Amino acid sequence: MKPRLLLCAALAVLLGACASVPPRLAEPALRERAPLAGLPVDAKAGWPASDWWKRYEDPQLDALMGLVLTHSATLAEARARVAQATQSARITAAKAGLQVEGDAQLARHRMSEHGLIPSQFLGFTWYTQADLGLSLRHDFDWWGKHRAAVAAAVGQARVAAAQQAAATLALESAVADAYFGWQADHARLALAKSAVEVGRQLLTIARLRVGAGLEPPDLQHQAEAGVAAARQQQVALESSVQIRLAALASLLGVAPAALPPLEVRPLPTAATGLPPHASLDLVARRPDIAASRWRVEAALRGTDVARAQFLPDLSISALAGLSSIDLGKLLEAGSRTFALAPALHLPIFNGGLLQASYGLSKAKLDAAIAQYDAAVLDAAREVATQALTLQRIAAQRREQRSQLQAIQALHDSAAARQRRGVVDGRPALQARAQLLQQRAVAIGLHTEALTTGVALTRALGGGYRSDTPTSPSSSALPAPDATQ
Questions:
Q1: Rounded distance between C-alpha atoms, residue 270 and residue 447, angstroms
Q2: What is the pLDDT of residues 147-178, one digit of tens each?
Q3: 452 conformational bin, left if phi > 0, alpha if psi -120 to 50, beta if neither
Q4: What 3-state DSSP class applies to 420?
Q5: Rounded distance, CA 435 to CA 25, Å?
Q6: Residue 133 contacts by C-beta under 8 Å, 6 or more apart in sequence?
Q7: If we measure between CA atoms, which residue out of 462, 476, 469 comes closest to residue 167?
Q8: What pTM did the predictor assign?
Q9: Please, what is the end-to-end C-alpha distance for the chain in angstroms?
Q10: What is the DSSP string of 118-165?
Q11: Cα–Cα distance, 175 to 155 (Å, whole number)
């Protein structure tokens, strides 16, 4: 009766322990689209490609992007994090499988003459112990604890891969911004030099008229102030050009002198606007959203691991080998040794540790879900901001072109009167100064449209495409180099 009583008691304890196991959590319902309804879209606009900067058809920009992708310390750090997370996932997966180890040991021992069995009774004091064996251990993953741990580790590796893609996109955007800013500064610098020359011509006329007594000295002082302001603008732009180069070199991880030679080129056409179906596709095209989604899935698998801790764990260990205190007899049949040890682990009382661990895993899951929702909303806000900014800049550029045409007509009229000898050169020079100023404004708006287009490209994911599965149970390791 005693074995039966012990078996019944064990079953009762087992059932009692399993009765407190929390239910398995269902997959959370996450946002499948971004709130972008009502934003203007451009039917001709497409989603960015992975090499989105090539749409500007600028070989210099292509070369800079190639350098930043190979020399950036930021990207090297991101790649190292991906490699670390990937290896951690592989370690977790390796620990979950069958463990087989081989052991070989040779030891020389001296027995105590005052031990449990004195050496004088055995007839020897020194002996050699030789052991040669093979051991294995396997944990029966009945409740999926190891599978969940592997899936959680893989999720963290995919988080790192998505973060690498986000870091790459941010760096590419920064390089494009700095490069277009450098080109724009050069274009404005040429206008500033022309403005200085116009100011000098106006100053010459003012000095002649003041010297002839035709104008008060204030006219000359006003012209001198105009020349000083134009020179100040020229100096500021010359400094800005150098600062842009230093910024480019820093982004590329090289010295400014190591930058490839850059030539001044016309500014390219800016991005047009928001592509159709952005609300539906944005979630799959943003690396930060993909990273947040993988965090949710890793946290969900973490709750499975914490839940499995409540359940009994069965493992088996086995040993087969040879053992002898006579080295010459180690390989004889009599030296064989075998062991088989099945083990059952059942948590009965742990002071609430399992409940606390499970509660912590649920809290991490809730935090990951909240972070995902915030990432989607932030992405929608960023996309909306850039799309509406592009719309505003387009309207400004239309009005500014009208203003530029009017000033051009004013300049042409003044120059025609000057050629006929009706007036002196001042009206034409003043109209030219206004024309140069408006051209600088046009370059500024063009540059703003370019940088906003780059920002919109970044907000749309820059060609990233998430490979997040519909079910988070996938245990395939990420391919970091293929995320973008």
A1: 8
A2: 888 888 888 889 888 888 999 999 999 999 99
A3: alpha
A4: coil
A5: 68
A6: 102, 103, 104, 319, 320, 321, 322, 323, 337
A7: 462
A8: 0.81
A9: 68
A10: -HHHHT-SEEEEEEEEEEEEEEE-TTSHHHHHHHHHHHHHHHHHHHHH
A11: 30
